[in-house]
Amino acid sequence: MAAASLVGDWTYPTSIRFGAGRIRELPDACKAVGLRRPLLVTDPGLAKLPVISDALIGLRRNGIEVALFSDVKPNPVVLNVDSGVAVLRAGKHDGVIAWGGGSAIDAAKAIAFMAGQVGALWDFEPIGDGWTRANPAGILPSVAVPTTAGTGSETNCAAVIGNPQTKTKKVIFHPRMMPSIVIADPELTVGLPARLTAGTGMDAFLHCFEAYCAPGYHPYAEGIAVEGMRLVKENLARAVKDGRDLEARSHMLAASQMGSTAFQKGLGAIHSLSNPVSAVLDTHHGLTNAVAMPYVLKFNRAAIDEKVARLSCWLKLHNPTFDGFMQWTLDLRREIGIPHTLAELGVKVEHLDKLAEMAAVDSTAGSNPVKAGVLEMRKMYEAAVAGRL
Fold first, then answer.
1. What pLDDT sits at residue 329?
2. How high is the pLDDT of residue 269?
3. Measured between alpha carbons, how far is 80 from 2 in angstroms, rounded to an integer?
């Protein structure tokens, strides 16, 4: 199917304008949401690119008084959010344009969330009734423009923000954090470096996979997850090999949004292991997930063997069994350049006690198919550092 035909207007889970060239609709999208003075939030690298300056010019020509904020780290921290909120309030902005990968979009959503709140960001952690303390009227609207196909942050109502003091990542959630409109233009993902394409693409796959395996009854999420994995299977290696393959990029962008839609069912120990590593060592989230995957897959085997065999049939693997699926994932990782061990990302044995404690209390641990406490997390870390399967 040609990339030109991969166009659509979707309203699940939010309003999505999908297709090549649709970034031209950004001024219209802002007006549709009621944004007249938005703050465009992105990362420092993207802020220097012509596509951002072109967008700013286009918005201003359409009567939209936009400003730019780009003080966002690759793993955003609370200081980035606080700084953005200060700029937003000082400029009397009425909403946010979230432009970039998961980090920029998460930071932007958190800025829009905190715009009218009293207190600190951590006051609204979704522990107990934490998120209900937020003033909904103080949450500003946002338009999201993803430039990577990985986290799918543009289609969920949460943000992952780091706390440097505790070296932890926290999830901030509120239903009104969902962007009102998404401009999903695969042309914006063209040319993403192969390593980032691989890491973000595996993140999309693992959002789908962990959602599919998470316990509980949610057939809607599982169906979306299966189709998302099929799209990744057929397009990720293509996108890594040829960064200008617009058809593959389009399918990967859709798959990333499907992953973030599906994981409302839950995630699991792949993310539980990955989140502490990226918080402590500042590694790329999707890449870390991809490295951790097979070790968690092996740990969970007893609970997911039959389900993975069924998935293997749907994916039309040559060997439609758990072992066949494991081998396919290892082959895919090798093909797209994913390291085999966490040691290659800088994880050392002396890190493991602390990492295991953090992983056991990570918000994703509770939906792993097999219960995993500190001891089990430590064992998976040990295997992932040594490369032992």
1. 97
2. 98
3. 40
Domain boundaries, the chain: 3-188, 193-386
Amino acid 103: pLDDT: 92
Which residues, given as ranges, of the chain have pLDDT below 70? 1, 10, 127-129
d(CA 238, CA 81): 36
Q: What is the residue whose two structure tokens read 């939010």?
A: 14
Q: Among positive and negative, which fits the CA dihedral 202, 105, 344, 308?
A: negative
- Nearest-angstrom CA–CA distance, 275 and 69: 26
Rounded Cα distance, 159 and 234, in Å: 29
Extract the tokens encoding 244: 């200008």
What pLDDT sits at residue 290? 98
* Contact of 169 with 274, CB cutoff 8 Å: no
Q: What is the pLDDT of residue 143?
A: 98
The per-residue pLDDT for 119 is: 86
- Tokens representing residue 383 in the block: 């295997």
CA–CA gap between residue 236 and residue 332 (Å, rounded): 9
Q: Work out the angle between the directed axes of helices 374-386 and 352-360 (0-180°, nearest 10).
A: 130
Which fold, 3-188? Rossmann fold (3.40.50)
Find the length of the chain.
389
193-386, what's its fold?
A: Dehydroquinate synthase-like, alpha domain (1.20.1090)
| Inter-residue contact 8 to 24 (CB < 8 Å) | no
